[in-house]
Amino acid sequence: MLTGKRILLVISGGIAAYKALELIRRLRERGAAVTPVMTRAAEQFVTPLSVSALAGEEVHRDLFDLTKEAEMGHIQLSRVADLVLVCPATADLLAKMAAGMANDLATTLLMATDTPVMAVPAMNVRMYLHPATQRNIATLTADGAHFVGPVEGDMACGEFGPGRMVEVPEILAAIEGAFSPKPLSGSRILVTSGPTHEPIDPVRYIANRSSGAQGTAIASALRDLGADVIFITGPADVAPPAGVRIVKVDTAAQMLEAVTSSLPVDAAVFAAAVADWRVASASDSKIKKVDGALPTLSFAENPDILATVAQMTKGRPPLVVGFAAETDDVITHATAKRARKGCDWIVANDVSPETGIMGGSENAVTLISKDGAEAWPRMDKAHVAAQLAERIAQAVAAG
Ligand code: CTP
Questions:
Q1: d(CA 152, CA 203)
Q2: Fewer CB atoms inside 10 Å of the end CB: C or N, the chain?
Q3: Ligand 1 centroid from CA 326, angstroms
């Protein structure tokens, strides 16, 4: 239910604008109040009369409206809501938002608001996949906006692909999720993620193929449950999540230092693929080619960050979660790893090539704890992260 919540609904000009009418009805059925704002282009697709009739409130359309400025200025209008929902969010409006433009009522409200912003994109597939749109979405995500969709499907323009607006029930679920309880609020949780880079000389390093996707998804899921997340990441492929404290490191030694200086925490999740070895004496200058001779690298073992923290006698986080990537005898190896490292849980995954998990979007994990092994069904990495975050919330609440 959304009883007592006020939603400032910005409708921009796309063919999917007609779905905003249904959305207004369903929001009101759930007890929400809807303050509608329409762009000029939106009025070409749905009439302000239909929108205001369904919302039970007048539609705000003009930036320079003397009467309205006298009654309730646009700054105040942007702040009275519990959520600003942009639906549909066209490529044009996203571009204006990302650029920080404020040349009509909708964009001015979006610039002036201090309320969470949720955008529901809807556009042609080429427009959605255009690097400019992708850049704008990345910018807005980094600025803290939440996106719902788009999804793949048939489009009104006759094409097929990503760009289609999600259906009304999914928008409602996302809105309800945004208002859902935050069981981890007040908790500090540390997440390590990504690979480490171990230098050979100033221009060369040893690395691994970790993308950082699973660690990033976990940090986002913990943030969504209200945790104050400290995200310690090596040089990853995926962008770090918004709304978390980001600590960027390169090497395992730097990661250990960042982890220990972030303690105390209520829980620590070690999802990074830390290099087991570093080059014992990395060269300060670039190693030059010498005719007929090959360089020899000698290695030193890196600190095991998970084991170091899990075995602390003072200041050990109450919940320490490690990961294990295995290719065979997953449960046996992961159970032994849990005991060897001294952590509370191990999230084990089978990364044998036939699973397609390494580098893919899905994961099939087994959670190993003192109570035994619990196999989770195969699901995408965001769902694994959400389920793990829920379990962490239960464990933190249980103390
Ligand atoms: N880990 C760590 N510091 C290291 C090495 C690993 O914190 N120097 C953590 C990882 O973040 C992960 C877990 O330990 O949570 C993985 O343990 P590891 O022994 O590296 O296992 P695998 O990667 O599964 O490799 P192996 O089977 O070779 O031991």
A1: 42
A2: C
A3: 11
CA of 22 to the centre of ligand 1 (A): 50
| Domain 6-178 of CATH type 3.10.560.10 | no
Alpha carbon nearest to ligand 1 atom 17, residue: 324
Q: Minimum mean pLDDT among 157-166, 198-207, 273-282: which range?
A: 157-166
pTM for the complete prediction?
0.73
Q: Which band of pLDDT confidence, cut at 50, 70 and 90, is reported for residue 351?
A: confident
Tens of pLDDT, residues 215-230: 999 998 998 899 999 9
Question: How is residue 23 written in tokens?
Answer: 């959305």
Q: Is 87 one of the catalytic residues?
A: no
Nearest ligand 1 atom to the CA of 346 is 15
Q: What is the average per-residue pLDDT within 180-206?
A: 96
Residue 308 CA: which ligand 1 atom is closest? 7
Q: List, for residues 282-291, the tens digit of each pLDDT value.
A: 999 999 999 9
Dihedral over alpha carbons 18, 22, 23, 24 (to 10 degrees):
100
Per-domain residue ranges for the chain?
A: 6-178, 188-398
- Same topology, domains 6-178 and 188-398? Answer is yes
Residues with CB under 6 Å of ligand 1 are 192, 252, 270, 272, 274, 276, 302, 304-306, 322-325
Q: Are 17 and 42 in contact (CB under 8 A)?
A: yes
Atom of ligand 1 lying closest to residue 309 CA: 7
Task: Name the catalytic one among 72, 156, 157, 397.
Answer: 157
Q: What is the CATH number of domain 188-398?
A: 3.40.50.10300
* Residue 252: how many other CB atoms lie within 10 Å: 23
